[in-house]
């Protein structure tokens, strides 16, 4: 993956993909002092680009550092890089991290670096998997208490338990894992938020200890625009059998129906279909973007 053609934007410059390197003594590598974003471009335009760039800044603020490029500069670099890469539909990954100037835990003066990579990353799940609904394991780890970790930042350190949980699920033949929060309430998947449907209404956990996804917020708006009630509330795992449908939301996952969570079964139906269709329509560029 580090040897592809094309360019990566790094600290204000476009560098060849294979040359976008960092030193092994990078603070971000040792202590996870890094924050990132995940975005998708559709038809040549990045969906909710500015919201993502703002969240990158906010994540950095929560982590106690400041990215030396404004939201507008990051937006501009993402747009330019998308054109240079020549993609209309692609995945966009900005990241910011503390550099290698010193390696103590305390490194307030280390340079803050910022990079953006764009590549073609089709849906996490194949179209067949999506329509049938994916299978989720129950993760062993729980989302941390907000007093234990900066749970509202899209911070690299929070993904340690996600990778462990996703690997464990995949080793058992599942696509992903559903994580509970520290209280034992349903939280989210390892890289996507979760929704349930029952009697024409949507239910989703209150985002009080995990990322309040941009896709989650979009889907809530789309559902309410259709007149569908959305309850943001505590959901206990004991309730899972009472729901008819379930789906995940995320910039990468988009809207992905779920058929199983451990022993619980769901039947992707009208609600999954409506939200899939509404989201697919919402992400299309609002005005035609010229192909180059
Ligand atoms: N939770 C986690 C842990 C994630 O990694 C993501 C993906 N960024 C989400 C939720 C969904 O967020 P968004 O809709 O903003 O992509």
Question: Could you give the topology of this structure?
Answer:
Elements: E1 7-10, E2 13-16, H1 27-31, E3 34-36, E4 39-42, E5 45-46, H2 49-62, H3 71-85, E6 90-98, E7 112-119, H4 127-132, E8 134-138, H5 160-171, E9 176-180, E10 186-189, E11 193-198, E12 201-205, H6 214-225, E13 230-233, E14 245-250, E15 254-261, E16 264-265, H7 270-282
Parallel strand pairs: 8-9, 8-15, 12-13
Antiparallel strand pairs: 1-2, 1-7, 3-6, 4-5, 4-6, 6-7, 9-10, 11-12, 11-14, 14-15, 15-16
Helix pairs in contact: 2-3, 6-7
Bound molecules: 4'-deoxy-4'-aminopyridoxal-5'-phosphate.
Outline:
Its EC number is 2.6.1.42. The protein has 292 residues and is an alpha+beta fold.
CATH architecture annotation name of the largest domain:
Alpha-Beta Barrel
**Sheet bearing the most strands, described?**
9 strands, mixed
- Runs with pLDDT <50, length 5+? none
Arithmetic mean pLDDT: 95
Shape: globular
The level-1 CATH class of the largest domain: Alpha Beta
Number of strands: 16
Small molecules in complex = 4'-deoxy-4'-aminopyridoxal-5'-phosphate
Distance from first to last alpha carbon: 26 Å
Total number of helices: 7
CA-based gyration radius: 19 Å
CATH superfamily of the largest domain: D-amino Acid Aminotransferase, subunit A, domain 2
Order of helices and strands: EEHEEEHHEEHEHEEEEHEEEEH
Broad structural category: alpha+beta
Portion in beta strands: 25-35%
Number of folding domains? 2
Query: Could you name the CATH topology of the largest domain?
Result: D-amino Acid Aminotransferase, Chain A, domain 2
Helix content: 25-40%
């Amino acid at each position: 993956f580090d040897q592809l053609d094309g360019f990566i934007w790094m600290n204000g410059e476009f560098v060849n993909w294979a040359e976008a390197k960092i030193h092994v003594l990078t603070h971000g590598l040792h202590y996870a002092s890094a924050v990132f974003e995940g975005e998708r471009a559709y038809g040549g335009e990045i969906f909710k680009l500015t919201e993502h760039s703002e969240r990158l800044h906010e994540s950095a603020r929560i982590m106690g550092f400041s990215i030396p490029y404004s939201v507008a500069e990051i937006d501009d670099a993402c747009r330019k890089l998308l054109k240079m890469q020549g993609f209309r539909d692609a995945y966009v990954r900005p990241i910011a991290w503390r550099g290698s100037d010193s390696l103590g835990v305390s490194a307030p003066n280390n340079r803050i670096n910022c990079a953006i990579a764009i590549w073609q990353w089709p849906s996490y799940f194949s179209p067949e998997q999506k329509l049938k609904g994916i299978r989720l394991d129950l993760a062993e780890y729980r989302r941390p208490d907000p007093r234990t970790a900066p749970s509202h930042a899209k911070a690299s350190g929070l993904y340690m338990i996600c990778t462990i949980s996703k690997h464990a699920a995949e080793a058992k033949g599942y696509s992903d894992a559903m994580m509970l929060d520290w209280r034992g309430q349903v939280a989210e998947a390892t890289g996507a938020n979760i929704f349930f449907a029952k009697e024409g209404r949507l239910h989703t956990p209150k985002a009080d200890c995990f990322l309040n996804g941009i896709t989650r917020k979009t889907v809530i708006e789309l559902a309410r625009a259709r007149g569908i009630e959305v309850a943001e509330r505590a959901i206990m795992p004991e309730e899972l059998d009472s729901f008819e449908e379930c789906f995940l939301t995320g910039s990468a996952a988009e809207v992905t129906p779920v058929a199983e969570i451990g022993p619980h079964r769901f039947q992707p139906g009208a609600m999954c279909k409506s939200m899939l269709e509404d989201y697919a329509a919402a992400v299309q560029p609002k005005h035609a973007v010229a192909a180059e």
